[in-house]
Amino acid sequence: MVSRNYNISFTTIHLQTVPLFLIISFLIYLYKNSNYQTPPHNKILQTSENFVATVAGLFCILVRVLKNYWKMGSGQWHMEKRSTLKNDSFVKEYNPVTETGSLSIIVLGASGDLAKKKTFPALFNLFHQGFLNPDEVHIFGYARSKITDEELRDKIRGYLVDEKNASKKTEALSKFLKLIKYVSGPYDSEEGFKRLDKAILEHEISKKTAEGSSRRLFYLALPPSVYPPVSKMIKAWCTNKSDLGGWTRIVVEKPFGKDLESAEQLSSQIGALFEEPQIYRIDHYLGKELVQNMLVLRFANRLFLPLWNRDNIANVQIVFREDFGTEGRGGYFDEYGIIRDIIQNHLLQVLCLVAMEKPISLKPEHIRDEKVKVLQSVIPIKDEEVVLGQYEGYRDDPTVPNDSNTPTFATTILRINNERWEGVPFILKAGKAMSSKKADIRIQFKDVPGDIFKCQNQGRNEFVIRLQPSEAMYMKLTVKQPGLEMQTVQSELDLSYKQRYQDVSIPEAYERLILDTIRGDQQHFVRRDELKAAWEIFTPLLHRIDKGEVKSVPYKQGSRGPAEADQLLKKAGYMQTHGYIWIPPTL
């Protein structure tokens, strides 16, 4: 049952007057059944005269309400929908509206790598799991390439299913591909977008969707440089012509600029065309299973509440490693570097969830408010708490300048100036061509005071959240080694997802985030002030790197990175555990 917010008028009576009728009816009932007496404890109605006066007063209020909604010149009652201020970013728990219009998903940059490898596979998985109704949805690809519908389908087909599951998904794949239509055109010309709008409108008409009630989702799988002209074309030619429950939303990919100034310029250009609740700045790390688990882990478990602060935690590491280099993308990567590519967005978003205070509710704005507070509490980065590296062979790529100082590795320490985290270093570390591929959060606790077992050199307690691969959470503990002797050893309490949730398929991050966009939930997307605060932290350092004031030191491919990074971690208070290696359990 979906609630509707209506006015009833004479011509208009507000539904809020209904409780007055109920109150009056209840009081009259009491009056008739009380023999004109009031109970001794009732201080409101002392006499029958007071009772009548009370009823009369309520009746006057009712008349006044009716008068306020009276419209002259009408001879009948009717119902009228009340206009409301709608904010897509809040859960519509007080005034839900059923979305019945057709859904059009438009992938701009449809012939590019991002669309092929991430966007279309995510849409197919949502379709296969029943989240995209074929009776409502249609998918449009738009790009400059002059290809047909069938050529686009053939281009993406191989990315939608793997060979292992191909036979099980043949029927679903065929149905999904039939939903895809391609429109070719430039990104800065109205002709192409007029054709796109015409194609969308034909789909909406075929679904008998009233104008203005349709839902249009534009996914910009494009370089940020074309966001402004594309957004302008969408606004001018492809949005809903009226608001009858439908919506227009756009999804933009990182990088959101290269520094504070360019990010603010980009935000201003898009913000001049669309309202903030219509803009979804996607950071796919916020769609990862264990990143989404952070709020539940922190605020639904009493165990962590007294421990999650500077009194118990020595340091926090958030680490991203890849065991391969730029692989032909050297020219593109050299424009950005590892800090802009990974640390300023992905790792910083994870830091916010680790460090934020408990929000007053799970409404997206309340959660994002707390994240912004964390970012605004970060003090300026010191050069002595930064180590940059560049793997040997990076400049061999012909698209990379011979004198490039762009870091492919970085370790930086952020410090949060608030009551909970003062004095606790947050170590953000990311690198390419490393010894392993992983991303994790490592929370190291302080030493136990009064070490009667003399076991501090074995390592501290650590709570590790493995984001990828092999999703897991494990707590490193010191325990007694089995046997007759009183000897201690490091072990773990382990929650490995593949072992614990064998029958559960963990969805890809893009699946979650696209579904959130369709549902209008902005919790896992970056708000404009959040983006600004993030760039304010890193822009001064990035400008010093661009000017060559902070140098990248070489490191060997397949290593842990520069030795200077390990020295910085030790200086920050991180104690490495020697002799212990976590091994994901086998099924």
Automatic annotation (TrEMBL):
Residues 295-574 form the Glucose-6-phosphate dehydrogenase C-terminal domain. The keyword Lipid biosynthesis does not apply. Pathway: Carbohydrate degradation; pentose phosphate pathway; D-ribulose 5-phosphate from D-glucose 6-phosphate (oxidative stage): step 1/3. Its EC number is 1.1.1.49. It is an enzyme of class 1 (oxidoreductase). This is Glucose-6-phosphate 1-dehydrogenase. One of its GO terms (biological process) is glucose metabolic process. Belongs to the glucose-6-phosphate dehydrogenase family. Forms homodimer. It catalyses: D-glucose 6-phosphate + NADP(+) = 6-phospho-D-glucono-1,5-lactone + NADPH + H(+). Catalyzes the rate-limiting step of the oxidative pentose-phosphate pathway, which represents a route for the dissimilation of carbohydrates besides glycolysis. The main function of this enzyme is to provide reducing power (NADPH) and pentose phosphates for fatty acid and nucleic acid synthesis which are involved in membrane synthesis and cell division. The chain crosses the membrane at residues 12-31, 51-70. GO terms for cellular component: cytosol. HAMAP family: G6PD. Residues 106-293 form the Glucose-6-phosphate dehydrogenase NAD-binding domain. Keywords: Carbohydrate metabolism, Cytoplasm, Glucose metabolism, Membrane, NADP, Oxidoreductase, Transmembrane, Transmembrane helix. One of its GO terms (molecular function) is NADP binding. InterPro entries: G6P_DH, G6P_DH_AS, G6P_DH_C, G6P_DH_NAD-bd, NAD(P)-bd_dom_sf. It comes from Arabidopsis thaliana (Mouse-ear cress). It is found in: Cytoplasm.
